[in-house]
Amino acid sequence: MPQNSLQQQLVTYLTDVHSTEQNALSTLRAGADSVDDEELAAAFRQHLAETEEHERLVQGRLDAHGAGPSTLKDVAQKGVAAVTGAIASAAPDTSGKMLIQAYAFEHLEIASYRMLRQVARRAGDQETVQVADRILEQEHAAAQTLSDLLERVADHDLRQMGLAA
Ligand SMILES: [Fe+2]
Questions:
Q1: Span 54-79, pLDDT tens digits
Q2: What percent of the chain is predicted at pLDDT more than 70?
Q3: 114-138 pLDDT per residue, tens
């Protein structure tokens, strides 16, 4: 593949993860505001702060490649996140539903950053490789934090619904 196509492919991957981070910001904000489980809300708030940094780091790499933000796609994803938040906050088992979504989303991010990192390696963009490494470390940690909460939050929602043993 010609080098300029490889660069274009790298920019495509960067644009996609930038959209993903925008979506994550909306989803985490909605989650932090809507869940009634304090530990889960705290996990969302902590990862929200990390996600704000991820968005800046990816934007920095897009800037380095002279590419603008993916405005249209971001707007579309924000809309989806807002609808998701509205549906989740109407349910009595909101915490569990938001946790399932967040857990799935962290793994989507992990897959996305591993692919981005590989494309960056092939394109010889070591700075993007380092950014992906740094972000992946935090995505893995966030995924583990959420994983550790699954059973406890299921019990929490049962108590909220008056179904706890
Ligand atoms: Fe994340």
A1: 999 999 999 999 986 555 455 555 55
A2: 82
A3: 999 999 999 999 999 999 999 999 9
- Give the distance (Å) from ligand 1 centre to CA of residue 113: 10
Q: What's the CA-to-centroid distance between 164 and ligand 1, angstroms?
A: 31
Q: What is the pTM of this model?
A: 0.86
- Total domains present in the chain: 1
Q: What is the 44 CA–ligand 1 centroid distance (Å)?
A: 10
Distance from the alpha carbon of residue 1 to the mean position of ligand 1, in angstroms: 31
| Residue 72 in tokens | 């249209």
Non-local CB neighbours of 117 within 8 Å, separated by 6+ positions:
128, 129, 132, 133, 136
Q: Does any domain span residue 24?
A: yes
The verdict on residue 165 lying in a domain is: no
Q: How far is the CA of 124 from the centre of ligand 1 (A)?
A: 25
- What's the CA-to-centroid distance between 106 and ligand 1, angstroms? 5
| Residue 118 lies inside a defined structural domain of this protein | yes
Domain region containing 36: 3-160
Q: In angstroms, what is the span from residue 104 Cα to ligand 1's centroid?
A: 10
Task: Give me the CATH number covering residue 87.
Answer: 1.20.1260.10
The CA–CA distances, whole Å, from 158 to 42, 63, 121 equal: 20, 47, 47
Q: 74, 18 in Cβ contact below 8 A?
A: yes
Residue 85 confidence class, pLDDT cut points 50, 70, 90: low
Residue 87: inside a domain = yes
Distance (Å) from CA 136 to ligand 1 centroid = 8
